[in-house]
Amino acid sequence: MAYDESLTQQAFSGPGDHEVIDAVCGGDTEAFEVLVSRYGNRVYALCYRLSGNEADAADLAQTVFARAFRSLKSFKRDAALMTWLHTIAVNTWINIANRRKKVYFDSIDREFDTGEDTIVREYADPTQNVEESVARAGEAVLVQAQLMKLDPDQRLAVVLRYIEGRSYEEIAALCACSIGTVGSRLSRALEKLKDGLEPLLGAKKGRL
Amino acid sequence: MKCDELKNIQGMYIDGMLDAAARSRVEEHLAGCAGCRGQLARAVSAAGLLRHLPEKPMPRAVHDGIMRAVRHVPCVPVRSGWLAVLERFMMPAVSFAMVLAAVIYVADNRMVLSPVPSVQPSAIQNAAPQPRPGLFADMAAIESAVRVSSVRRAALPAAGFRGAGKVTFADVPLDFDQIVLKDMELTAELRSLMQRRAQRWPELEPFISQAALGEDNRGMLRERKPEMFTAADRALVAAENRDRAQLCALAGPGAENAAAFARACRQASPRGAAVQAEDGRWLSRE
Fold first, then answer.
1. What are the E-state strand segments in chain A?
2. How confident is the model at residue B60 (pLDDT cuts 50, 70, 90)?
3. How far is B15 from chain A (nearest CA, A)?
4. Interface test with chain A among B13, B56, B80, by most A beta carbons within 10 Å
5. Average pLDDT over residues A36-42
6. Under an 8 A CB cutoff, do A158 and B50 touch?
7. Closest among A32, A36, A85 to B73, alpha carbons compared
8. Do B53 and A143 touch (CB under 8 A)?
9. Which pTM value belongs to this model?
């Protein structure tokens, strides 16, 4: 999943991004489809890993491309288009996460504090019977479920770092925080993930 | 270094982001703590699992939804300040601005407006610079002008254009079956607005006729069945509402005019559409 930015242009045949952008900005709306075909999978994968389900990922990806289309003329040509799309995706997702925090993005196993008492949340845990989960839907489902248990800021850091292969500096810029904060979010996230993914770790030890 | 301290920096250690001094303190601790060595190996494995997640290709429906959405969105840079003003006044179409007729039928089909010279269809077709031709003489002139361009023919009814321009909505009777066209100045701005609405209409119409979109009491479309909408559909509705706000503003200022615009939109909606009464209740249009 991690990708090398330098390969972006070489990996695709056909007109370069800048040629396509010129065509779109010149009024050829259909040319935008080249960019959707070229970057759609990566954008969608990021959206899926962040939002955790296909319906929200579809909405997020559509919003990302619609925003990119609207502001394509303001895209600065010295940056890679994928980086720009990433930025739009992350900013859009952060906005949605902030708006829906209490409804959709709450950590599902954190205790609920009523002010007088704490209540343990009683959600059905799809990972309760780990062997069965793995057998039924594969380890990707388990990993995604554990990702969704992370706080949104930790999930964003982990997805950008270990799935998208972004540097600490890039993550800090995208999340508007310090490199130290990125480090501590990743550390806390790994601490939770290694507990949640314990059944898989024995078999995968040393795979990096 | 204590074990808990290592937990807080394990990410940076794994990723080689610690400075030399911190790294050597970690390694010193690891050399003497088998528990932390095991934990760190598990953290490395967890990161490895993330790196090897399978690809998640974009479904075709999402791809198509994106293209459907962008076909209705202008690709424009964000402009503000003097650039926006410059761009607006440099628009060549502004110089082609012309007046389209406006005729109001009252109940007895009597023309309200006085006879005026007509515009030659060819002039509109070629979009050549025109002096303001004034108002059309009669319905035949209007129809011939409208027939000239299929785009314009589609634009006029679909724009829901039952009034905007010199005569405010508040001035006219609200039985819109009686109103064919109203006095309006077909500026470049208004023309592109109408074309946008016309292009959008085929996509919006199913939502309106199924009451998934309702006409609210402010002249805007509002979601009534959110489960039927994708992000692309929502972008379409938002664009439509922006154009409606602009259309309302073109018709003239004032709350009374805005209220009349809202009534006009509701009255223009098809049978079965959801419409919002003044008191906020939602009704089905008979």
1. 112-113, 118-119
2. very high
3. 9
4. B56
5. 94
6. yes
7. A32
8. yes
9. 0.52
